Amino acid sequence: MKVLVPVKRVLDYNVKPRVKADGTGVDLANVKMSMNPFDEIAVEEAIRLKDKGVTEIVVVSIGEQKSQETLRTALAMGADRAILVVSETKVEPLGVAKILAKIVEEEKPDMVILGKQAIDDDNNQTGQMLAGLLNWGQGTFASKVEIADGSVNVTREVDGGAETDTLKLPAIITTDLRLNEPRYASLPNIMKAKSKPMAQKTPADFGVDVTPRLTTLKVVEPAKRSAGIKVADVDALVGKLKEMGVAK
Amino acid sequence: MKTLVWVEHDGQAVKDATLSAVTAASQLGEVHLLVVGQGVDGVAAEAAKIAGVGKVHVADDAAFAHALAENVAPLIVELMATHDAFVAPSTTHGKNIAPRVAALLDVMQISDILSVESEDTFTRPIYAGNAIATVQSSDAKKVITVRGTAFAKAATEGGSGAIEAVASTGGDKGLSTFAGAEIAKNERPELTSAKIIVSGGRALASSDQFHALIDPLADKLGAGVGASRAAVDAGYAPNDYQVGQTGKIVAPEVYVAIGISGAIQHLAGMKDSKVIVAINKDEDAPIFQVADIGLVGDLFKIVPELTEKL
Ligand SMILES: Cc1cc2nc3c(=O)[nH]c(=O)nc-3n(C[C@H](O)[C@H](O)[C@H](O)COP(=O)(O)OP(=O)(O)OC[C@H]3O[C@@H](n4cnc5c(N)ncnc54)[C@H](O)[C@@H]3O)c2cc1C
Ligand SMILES: Nc1ncnc2c1ncn2[C@@H]1O[C@H](COP(=O)(O)O)[C@@H](O)[C@H]1O
Hints:
The complex is a heterodimer of chains A (248) and B (310).
Chain A: E1 2-6, E2 9-11, E3 33-35, H1 37-48, E4 56-63, H2 67-77, E5 81-86, H3 93-107, E6 111-115, H4 126-134, E7 137-147, E8 151-158, E9 161-168, E10 171-175, H5 187-193, E11 198-201, E12 214-220, E13 229-231, H6 234-243
Parallel strand pairs in A: 1-4, 1-6, 4-5, 5-11, 6-10, 7-10
Antiparallel strand pairs in A: 2-3, 7-8, 8-9
Helix pairs in contact in A: 2-5, 3-4
Chain B: E1 2-6, H1 16-26, E2 30-37, H2 41-48, E3 53-60, H3 69-79, E4 85-89, H4 92-105, E5 110-113, E6 115-118, E7 121-126, E8 131-137, E9 142-146, E10 162-165, E11 176-183, E12 196-200, H5 207-221, E13 224-227, H6 229-233, E14 254-258, H7 264-270, E15 275-280, E16 293-296, H8 299-309
Parallel strand pairs in B: 1-2, 1-4, 2-3, 3-10, 4-9, 5-9, 12-13, 12-14, 14-15, 15-16
Antiparallel strand pairs in B: 6-7, 7-8
The structure holds flavin-adenine dinucleotide and adenosine monophosphate.
């Protein structure tokens, strides 16, 4: 069984994003970039499924040359080979999904495991779009994945609780935070990853037009909340709550 | 513009998130609703009463009983032949269905909008709400999900939409089947519409203490109960309590954060609350940077005393 895992290079989740003064976006110069946390979970899940019938894990990233680092991280975690689709300009989820659909045609994986959302643009679209383009089943926001015969059972985090769906394979899965705890790559594995294969492509190689459909007119900081007051004790807090009409 | 709004419901009643989506859609033009499900006559009748609604399309089929995106999306795509925009609330089901519709229409979805600036221009949060982008769509048809806390709820009375059955539902695509659900029974106000929320973090240290301390305070205040991811991961509180970037986005009148540090992913879910109250023993905890009222101290002393004095 082959699994494809798309991984995106994003601003590290510990870094506080700063909006550029000219309002064109978030400043990414000289800040730490990492693999999207949900994609680490996706890679981890694919690796864990290796005991359960998965034989090959192919990781894909669409983005600037530096996304090689992200792919190497995935290889060091345990993926087998990588494909980098180079685009120095931003590719939107629709374009990403179209490229991934072409890669799926070539690679014929049994499953594609994506993150549920990239924490830069917070779109939460690519997996569902890919499932639509391929006419595959989709198990989004997965907190548990179990491969069965010709199908996969996916427990999904939904409002109010959890839902389990059975998807016919091949299928799309998107990961939620509680699916697993991703491993750290060990030093020997980081060394080994350096010699694992990494193919380079461009969107044009797949005949996909990635012209953006959305134009960002401006990016601003949200209205700032200013810190309020500190109260000395519970009585003062109760007083404040009463003042606000929250408590009687 | 003629907009089709997907109605979120539980088979019995229209969910509140739908009402905010209707308000957003009404800023684009004429609002039509789509009620998809099995045995949904009651829901359709309720939906038709929402203020400002034109037609209510109803697709009743066993294949729609669980809102599976694989079955619902093709139906929506067909209806989009006669609509200019598709709008869904940013709920887990809405987020599951809408992008599939967008891809099938060859449209880039505009996720989680905060405002409608014009027919093609919207604002939306990026980077966990640390930045707000204004985006303009060049697609002929729009596919949009709506952040519930950013739009007022449409009135549930006053409308008189014409109910119309969808001619052909398309039925089951055979890609997925619903195998079961565990929906927590919760007597408390739903988080996304609660006026007051009391949230607990990792500091509660056990499920027992979480419930022993947070629940009575919430009861006193008539509040909904939330939690940080750390508290959920540790099993102190159920999944659907989680507030934040990857949990629920809430904006109550009052949010009480107890033993929560205030990581940006948590703030992303609650920083639009009107008043934020924080209780934390660390006076430098980031939560105090957004709190209107802070109390520094040990929650195990403070919370019981607070509950008693209220
Ligand atoms: C991709 C991603 C998405 C995420 N999404 C979310 C999300 O949606 N929601 C979310 O909440 N988190 C999310 N997180 C996790 C987030 O980064 C934090 O780890 C989490 O919010 C921390 O939870 P906490 O504040 O309860 O725990 P901690 O950070 O451990 O804070 C505990 C706090 O309790 C205080 N404390 C300890 N003992 C006491 C006491 N006796 N009395 C009073 N105060 C006490 C401490 O001073 C501390 O400030 C996400 C992380 C990632 C990577
Ligand atoms: N440029 C990209 N390269 C590789 N994978 C991507 C890219 N963009 C999105 N993805 C995948 O799609 C998921 C959801 O992203 P999004 O729809 O942008 O929130 C991510 O977690 C990745 O798994």
